[in-house]
Structure formats: structure tokens, C-alpha cells
């Protein structure tokens, strides 16, 4: 993945046909308890449908309009990854073949697919992200225990998605000519918005949040039969009928049950009280099913009596979590939508701590909701806004971390941003707001900021980076330049193996040089460069706060070029400068002559292998042979031939190689 970060930074997208075989290489999402409730208590909301029939019906109703399906790609990775071998880094060609089959099946019936990938982790969901990463650590630990005990790969019941699969899937789908989008926030909002605004057939995924959004129909990827294109449609209207609720009540229900924004324990006592007073319980309903029914009953029979007359904090035990709860409800409001649960005063405003916030996606609406403020500075927290819909959603700082992000209001103004509590990095970074930058979302969806708070002040280069990000043509580049915060999820690393350092540390020097290129303007070394917040998962990291990583100055022959030169220049010789910069990122400028003698497809591989073996002294000759063999010996092999190859785990090195540098290699 790091190589892709570096390549996408230095070389502008060329949309080549990518052969990735030569390179080295969850939990139920959404509303708590809703998936189980639907399966056990409300199976009638699930209807078997056929995509071919749906497409024909759509064409008859909308002549000349191509039926389209929005795909939440992050939900589909487990469905797409069918190869049996996964412990050694993954089977790229088999996986690519599965993606081809998936695309062909829908193309054959005239359905267009639009794939969305998560492009960032929202601050309000960072705690949930950390919780899931720590859970994944425990699963990975059990995988290595099994391998050591049984000397073989675990079964599918212990399956863990190969490292980097989501990133590489973007490139694979683009190679297949598919429209691929990387989100500027959590992808589910953008998926739901796109589906609603473009009159799509529906959303294909596996996330109960899609039952809450008032958008196009929601189809299950888990139930999809690719041969027949049959799947299950989950009907939110039937769900509402079963619960005695309206569509506009579902966001409130989701927040009271708990979701990615509202911790499950926040309203545990409230749910228990609802359960105790609920009198229509049937013996065959499980406890979680009872809770969903009990909370729904309370909304319908108690809360609705005060709807529009009282504030939510007056009828619910919100306590200090008012702003977070409002944010949770508002997160389900798509452009043009508003919630009847937001109380309106005669003058259409409510205030908290003297702050006023609009909470509707409807430009005509005057609904208001409290915003988070810092009790000492009284600074307003910036709002995510869609320029057309005027929807605003408050972004709250973590009450435990006490971190604040002050905003500049003029490109020349700079303020200090506390970067964390690590005693080793007591530094402050400058951030700037560019009023000239009007975020231009190619997909026209999701809330955006009025003023973009960034780590880089050049609006032209930010626009280029943002476009590359949304079009899934770069990896982490825009995250660094915009927020100065990046993350890396779990990789298959044995926490008990002290001989092999974590990939997070092996590749950190390269990332630091990349940060130096991206953040620039470090005229006196790196002392004036802001630190980058890294949420990287590695053994022993409790993820209580990000690591603060300083950019590392590097030497490029002829001088370090600016991003404008690297990305936008058409001058003769620019490719040579880009290659010089790439080699400098890996500290391999002295090896340029030897690398130029290697054929183009293998230059990147050699660059990465040289770097690995310099950084990791515990790698041996057999490791090198394994990498090179996979690059050279498997070319020309068909997918069918690769399927029949046997994976050997007798050599421990084959699954100990640093996974961030691997790329779904055939064994």
C-alpha cells in the first residue's frame, strides 16, 4: 500500500491496465441489534428480488435511462474474496477474476455499477473505529495461535480480509472500467445520497444504516446469487409498519439503539426502562428483539405526543450528550430532508451556549440544534455543509481527548493546533482556511465544509489532490494535505514475534519523506513542518491517541520539486524528475543506475525489495526468493492453474513477511 501512496503522490494518474501480481503485498455495521431483529422477528420485511427483472421494470418506467446500482464496496469485500488461500497475503489473480465475474453479471443485464469506498474516518466515529481495530487484533492473535498449533491455514470461519484489499480493489475496478468513488466522509452517507439523487435501482451492501436512510431500496450482498442475480431486498416501509413508526422516526430509533456515532451503552438504562414498561412482549422474541420493539413502542406512544412541542433533551435523558445525539440523528438526513424531531421555537431557533446551528438539509428549513463549543474559548466547532442543500452537521471534539481544532478565517491567518499529548512531540502545527476554495464534489453529495481547514494553503494543488482522492486515483494523499491525519487498519502480524518489526515502523521513514513532499514549505529543515497524526494499528498500540510523526527531509538530485511540478508539469524530462523523487522517498537515489537496467514492470518491485531488506535484518535469502519467484514464475499462469496450486506453510517466512509491502500475491 505504501508503494501506491508514493506512486500516486509522484506520478499523475494515467489509467493503465495494472498488473498487480508482480508486487509484494467484520463486524456487523450499522444499528445495534437491528440485523438480528430483522432476521428473527421481522423476516417478512425481506423479499427475494431479481436484478434483471428490476432493471427491465426500471427501463419501462424510465425510457432511455440506464438502471444503476450503488455498491458499498467496503461491505462487499468478504463476498468478493472467494479464493481459499488468504493467510499468505491473498490470491490476486483469483480475486481479480472474481471481480470480473461480478461486473460481467450486472453488465450483461444492462445495469451500471457505481462503487463507493471509505476515504476517511470521521472524528465522531474514531472511537468506534478504534474499538473494531482492537477486536480485530484479538482475532488475528487467534489466527496465529491456530497456525502454530496446527501448521496449516485456519478455515473460513476464522477468515480475515487480506491486508490492503480495499485499496487494491479500487485499482482493480478502475482497470475493469468501473466508476469508482472514494468518499470524503463515511461512505454510507454518500452512498445513500447518490442513490436518492440519481434515482438508482438501489444500494447493494450489508449495513443496517441503509434501512434507516430514506433513500432508494436496500439489497443484501450477502444474499446475492451471482448466477441468477437473485438477492434479498430489505424494505424499510415494512419495517416501519411492523414497528408502528414512520420513516422520519427511524433516525431517532437508530440513535436510541446505538450506532457508529452513539455508543451502545449511552442509553442502556433508557432501553431497559422501555423494556420493563413494554407489555406486548411475546415469549418467542429474543431480548434484543424485545428491545427494538420496546424502544419503538416508546417512540410511537410516548415521545410522539411531544413531537414538535418539546426539545429532545426535554423528553429524553440526553444529559451532557445533547450535541452528540443531535449529530447522530442529523447524520441520517440526506440533502433536502429534515427531521420532525428537531424542535422549532416561534422564531425557528433554539440555542445552547449562545450558539445557533441549522440542522436541516432543506434550504428553506429553519430548524436549529445545539452545537459543541469549548467552554473556555467559546469557539464554534466547524460545520460540514453541502453548498447546495445548506445542510450543516456539527463536528464535535472527543470529550476525553480534549483536542481542539481552531480555524483560521483568512488565508494569511494562522493559528496553533494542539497535535496530541505525546510528551516526545510537544509541537504545534499551523493550519489554514482557504475561503477561495469551494469544494467541488464531482458526485455532488454529502455535507461539506463552508471553509476547508487544511494543512496546505495552495488552493490549486488542494483541488487537484481532492479530485484524485474522490476519483480513487490516490491513496491517503488528500487526507494528509487536508486534515493532517491518516490511519492504517489491521495487518496480519504476530504480536508475539519480536524478531520482525511491525510494518508501521518499517515503512515510517518513507511516509515521513512523503509528508515532507506533501506539506512542503519547510524552508529550514522540518522544524516548521506540522506533524501528521497517524492512527496505525501495530502490536502494543492501544490507540488511545495518534502517533505524531514529523516529516523527514530528503535529498532529490536537482532539488526537491514542488507538487505543481510533479503533478501538473508537461515539460520534457519531467518523468525523470518523478523517478528521482520516487527513489529519494525510499532513500535509493544511489541505486538509480542499477534500477534503470531492470524492465519497467519490475522496477517498483526491486525498489520495494531493496528497501525492505535494508530495513529488516531478520529477512533471509528464502524470503527474497519467495518474492522474486512470485513475480517471475507465475506470469502467464491462468486463474484455473493458480487455484490448484498448494500453499505450503512449512516455511514460516512465507507468512511472516511485512504485510504492508505485500500485494495479494499468488503462492
From TrEMBL:
Quote the biased-composition stretches of kind Basic and acidic residues, using this chain's numbering: 378-391
Q: Which InterPro entries match?
A: Coact_PPARg, PIN-like_dom_sf
Region annotation (Disordered) maps to: 378-404
Q: Which UniProt keywords apply?
A: Receptor, Signal
Q: Signal peptide: which range, if any?
A: 1-16
Which SUPFAM superfamilies does the entry mention? PIN domain-like
Q: Which organism is it from?
A: Galeopterus variegatus
Q: What is this protein called?
A: Constitutive coactivator of peroxisome proliferator-activated receptor gamma isoform X3
Q: Which family does it belong to?
A: Belongs to the constitutive coactivator of PPAR-gamma family.
